[in-house]
Amino acid sequence: MTQTDALPDDAIAIRGLRKTYAASKKAAPKTALDGVDLTIPRGSIFGLLGPNGAGKSTLINILAGVVNKSEGEVLIWGRDIDKRPRDARAALGVVPQEITADVFFTPREALEVQAGFYGVPANARRSDELLAAVGLSDKADAYVRALSGGMKRRLMVAKALVHNPPILILDEPTAGVDVELRRQLWAYVRRINALGVTILLTTHYLEEAQELCDSIAIMNRGRVVACEPTPQLLRRLDTRNVVVTPEHPLDGLPDLNGFEALARPNGAFAVTYRKGQSSVEQVLAAVRAAGVTIADITTEDPDLEDVFLALTYGDADQADPTKD
Ligand SMILES: Nc1ncnc2c1ncn2[C@@H]1O[C@H](COP(=O)(O)OP(=O)(O)OP(=O)(O)O)[C@@H](O)[C@H]1O
């Protein structure tokens, strides 16, 4: 980060981003990003969610300079990746998905080598500070091969920060990590964010996005289908389903005086109501008023998964994005 740049409001600003991978002998051209607009505010922990094939890796790889975009504008820390590619990339630290361990180095050496690679002068290096930030001070001189999986991941985070980038990208940081380790890693991500680093993370785990991120964008089939502050997204969850199994099979779905019924297997139907506005009692009254004798009822609280599915798979006419 150079001192002369004013702090931008947006850590990353993306407009009209498109990417079509060229056809190969075996495959037709593939549009991975289909007009993405995304703004990641400075200082945030921003989550990018989406099913396999949604375009998350393509987007991250364009930011990292590994994949060329087809169209659109990308500013990283206010720097256009077409006009100032080196400056733009210098503002990023990227932690890749796979653990890459430097088995012959100690964590401190690994950070020094990485700093050398980025041309960080010796007097500006802060290996010890970074090791402390990720909780590896007491392992500074251990062999990396002796570190646990979680420690190696934390070392990778420290390595991505050696050139003091204002933005850290974490690609699936906790894939395959157990719950305890996941929580530990989240704590380190929060700590780094508190030090002023903007975080962009991709994840398949809704729980992770919900816990960690102040804003969440959901991608599907190369587009952003939702982008909201996390509490706003969670407010969409202010609903509950009542699942009713009628005593006798119905000819069709009952008319429930304003409530909508959706068919469920085995002759049951579900009614969704907003918790603040109605109650189970009102739903059941409408069901009885429609002449339905109730054999059984259950209630369900939807979670982020339901919002996610509704947003990403809601359009039944579209092909499943996970099937190429
Ligand atoms: N090098 C490539 N050549 C051709 N098509 C590609 C290439 N890389 C990705 N794609 C296609 O682009 C689409 C988006 O893939 P991408 O990897 O960006 O999605 P993703 O959201 O990161 O998925 P995942 O969570 O599985 O990593 C997919 O249909 C994928 O098959």
Total beta strands: 14
Q: Which cofactor or ligand species appear? A: adenosine-5'-triphosphate
CA-CA gap between termini: 40 Å
- Tally of separate helices: 10
The major pleated sheet works out as: 6 strands, mixed
Helix content: 25-40%
Order of helices and strands: EEEHEEHEHHHEHEHEEHEEEHEH
User: Strand share of the residues?
Assistant: 25-35%
Class based on secondary structure composition and strand pairing: alpha/beta
User: Runs with pLDDT <50, length 5+?
Assistant: 319-324
Jot down its keywords:
324 residues, alpha/beta, 6-stranded mixed beta sheet, 4-stranded antiparallel beta sheet, 10 helices, elongated, binds adenosine-5'-triphosphate
Structure overview:
Residues 12-246 form the ABC transporter domain. The chain is α/β, with parallel strands linked by helices and 324 residues long. Helix content is 29%, strand content 27%. It has 10 helices and 14 strands. The chain has helices spanning 56-64, 85-90, 107-117, 127-133, 149-160, 179-194, 206-212, 230-235, 280-289, 304-313; strands at 10-21, 30-41, 45-49, 71-76, 79-80, 92-95, 167-171, 198-203, 215-220, 223-229, 239-246, 261-263, 269-274, 294-300. The strands form 3 sheets. A 6-stranded mixed sheet has the order 6-7-8-3-9-10, sandwiched between helices. Strands 2-1-4-5 form a 4-stranded antiparallel sheet. The chain is elongated, with a radius of gyration of 24 Å. The two termini are 40 Å apart. Adenosine-5'-triphosphate (ATP) binds next to strand 2 and helix 1.
